[in-house]
Specification:
By secondary structure, the chain is an alpha+beta fold. It contains nine helices and four strands, in the order βββαβαααααααα.
Length: about 290
């Protein structure tokens, strides 16, 4: 769900910047910083972002930069002329000398230097600004799509590794059965030093080995691996589902480990856990 997008649009002397960032989150968590002129459109912006991005901790900014010439404070020419005529008239009427420095005097008069800002947002400007917002969101979505393709490749690699490790357990299962039989038999002969019923021994051994059998766990884990692949191919919005499947895979791997009773098999189980942990870490990035 991580991503970044930025767009710039031009309207008159303004440059309009839209920037959006996304981090992992179970729900939509959107914070905005919007230039005062565009705040009346905040709800429209929020709706646009929420519909496009669905989930994630989203940080959105929309601001304006103006050309330096546009920032210069204008001189009110009509007011300057009016002050000039008034001062000349007063001078002629009262006999008070006219100022020696007309510019300094006139520029100090009230409201000669003033800035008139446009307080209303025109539809034309909003269309340009909205286009920047849409472009920034689309760039973030493209970032997510590229990340998703890389994640899919990573997941397939990890699933293949788990499947290969699972298959590598099989040779040790036969060896394990024989080792269990030898260990129990050795204990009976050396530690207890008693005679035993061989038929009963074989029956008890079979019962004991059945309790350690991992064929069901292997089959369920294989099914989960296949289901994970299938779910990835179902398209958008499967992140939570993939997380649940990964949890089920973990249960089967843990049960296999607890039943292994064999050093080499337990080493393989640890490797499978490591591969699965990497899947769990990355599945948080999936929508």
């Amino acid at each position: 769900m991580t991503g970044y997008g930025k767009a710039v649009a031009t309207y008159g002397t303004k440059k309009i910047y839209a920037e959006v960032k996304s981090l992992n989150s179970k729900a939509m968590d959107l914070s905005t910083r919007i230039a005062p002129l565009y705040r009346e459109k905040e709800m429209e912006i929020r709706t646009l972002i929420a519909q496009a991005l669905e989930r994630g901790k989203i940080d959105f900014s929309l601001w304006i930069e103006e050309e330096s010439t546009a920032l210069a404070t204008p001189i009110n020419k009509a007011l300057v002329e009016s002050y000039y005529q008034q001062i000349k008239s007063i001078s002629e009427t009262t006999g008070i000398p006219e100022p020696t420095d007309w510019y300094a005097t006139l520029l100090r008069m009230p409201d000669v230097l003033s800035r008139t800002e446009v307080k209303e947002l025109s539809e034309e400007e909003w269309t340009v600004a909205r286009g920047a917002v849409v472009e920034a969101v689309e760039k973030l979505m493209e970032f997510r799509r590229q990340e998703g393709a890389a994640l899919e490749k990573k997941f397939c690699e990890k699933l293949d590794n788990i499947a290969a490790l699972l298959a590598s357990i099989e040779p040790y299962e036969v060896e394990r059965t024989e080792k269990i039989r030898e260990r129990i038999l050795d204990s009976l002969q050396k530690s207890l030093g008693v005679e035993y019923d061989k038929n009963r021994f074989e029956q008890e051994l079979i019962f004991y080995i059945e309790k350690l059998d991992i064929n069901e766990e292997k089959q369920r884990l294989t099914n989960h691996l296949n289901y994970f692949r299938q779910t990835m191919n179902e398209g958008h919005g499967q992140g939570k589902k993939l997380g649940f499947i990964a949890q089920e895979m973990g249960r089967e791997i843990n049960t296999t480990g607890s039943k292994s009773n064999h050093a080499e098999m337990q080493i393989i189980v640890v490797k499978m856990k490591d591969e699965l942990e990497q899947i769990k870490e990355q599945v948080l990035n999936v929508m």
